Amino acid sequence: MNQKRTDILPPKVRAWLMRYASAIFFIALVGLWEMVCRIGDIPNYILPSPASIFNAFFDVEFSRWLTHLWATLRVALLGFVLSIVISIPLAVAMVRSELMTRVIYPALVVVQATPVVAVAPLIIVLMGTGDPSRILITCMITFFPLVVSATTGMLETPAELVELSQSLRAPRYRETWQIRIPYAIPHIFSGLKVSITLAIIGAVVAEFVAAEEGLGYFIQFSTSFFKIPQAFAGLIFLAVISLLLFKSVTWIQTWLFPWSLPKK
Amino acid sequence: MLKKLTKPLALAAAMTVSSLTMAADEVTFQLDWLPGGDKAPVYVGVVEGFFEDADLDVKIASGRGSTDAVTKMATGQSDVGTADIGALMAARATDSVPVSAVLAYFSQAPHAFFTVKGSGVSSIKDVAGKKVATSPFTSSNLFLPLVLEENGLKESDVSLVKSDPGALGPMLMTGNVPVIIAWTTNVPLFENQAKEAGKELVVLPWSDAGLELYSSSLLAADKFLSERPEVAKRFITAFAKAVEFTYANPDKAGAAIHAMVPEVDAATAAAQIKSIKGLVYNSASEADGYGTLTPERMAMTWKWVAKANKLDPSKADPETMVNRDFMPEK
Fold first, then answer.
1. How far is A259 from chain B (nearest CA, A)?
2. How far is B159 from chain A (nearest CA, A)?
3. pTM of the model
4. Does the beta-carbon distance from A43 to B71 stay under 8 Å?
5. Does the ipTM surpass 0.95?
6. What CATH number has the domain spanning B111-209?
């Protein structure tokens, strides 16, 4: 029965549909949105139509978009890099020493459990309104998944490999570098994928609290002038860079560690 | 494209050149909110050269509310800025915040009820029994019970709903709520929405209902005033000139803020400036002279602020919160 139903479509059309399913769905959704706005005569300040959002892209000079994009991207990436620099050594320390785990882990959980949105204004007061405080806010939101995934990965190294290296009297740094970290790579990369999207959220949170440029600032600014289509345009940029960054992490993994990808 | 680029580039170049050749005194100016028409004077000061003439290099930082602006001045991140004097008074009454008021900017309160024609509200007394929407953190909320009291109403006579500032206009226009609380600085923005919705906006300013007080004022860090008094004096004099220019030339002022913050629409900013002229120039400023913070009106402001914040009025002396040594010379 089932077989028959799918056979209604020629295989070529079916393949084509499968290939572009998400794009078709997306276009249909945007079309529906535009139609609802037009037929329902919904004013722009409640739900802007896709057409008015598209126009809003051109209300802002291209150079300004670049300024805002770069400001957010810079903070997100620097915060992300900082959290890598902090969390991998932390994870190594925790894997190596029980004492370190006992000391660091509760502190990490406390930092993670504190809502960054609530702490952000305090960080700005302490560290000023420059990039460093925004980078720290981003780092606070991104480092935890990384520490957890790296630690889990390193702990999942097969015990016999660790024992073998110990019986061969390999120094501990080699145990870490050549056995544990490679084993942790798939875990680390899934942590990185979570972190990179959080990095954008962190940058935007920071910009909501204090900034003179950036997409988060731009969105806040646009709503303060009731320019809702423009705020949506800013949101779309944010979504696009989030997606691109997420994809880049996958590309980097495929490029540097192709062996760590799940086998198809 | 090129044409659009040349203006900001020329401006940037001009600013770089001027800072290179003069090594002017640096001053960080704190706004209490994001750039907009009501914040135009400091932008006018930069673009029209009032600060350059006074050998000042002014940097502008946006803020997220009056309390945030006072905190930034108190912690030394900014030297001087505009914020609600009420926030300073409340802060000074509970803590020794090293910030003082140096010049009046709005000598009337900007708080107001906004409604649309046909909602059955045409005076403040009419809000009785109505649903009123306001934003959660606005200082207006503190003054609301007092305004109601002045009009013979109780707080329980209105049902207050809190909502994001950006949602207030849409809520009013869709008839979700009959009345919202907002600042008169936003009149042109709400008017645009009303036009789009085919409605007519009605504004009921609280200053008409007896709320007589200083509002947005020029505040300065005490450290800035004591360590660089000469720079402070030059800045305040230049700022006063910029205020005068802004309200005399709203269109030029709108263009000035647009030149520095391209996202701000010059025409909207100009409309805002025109609509709030009464907050800056009014019976109080006429009687006392623009910018003057008189002991009487300071005392009156403190009385309102203390009452609104439920503070003991004897706990602080408003006179200790003012520094009149830097008033611009006439």
1. 48
2. 23
3. 0.83
4. no
5. no
6. 3.40.190.10
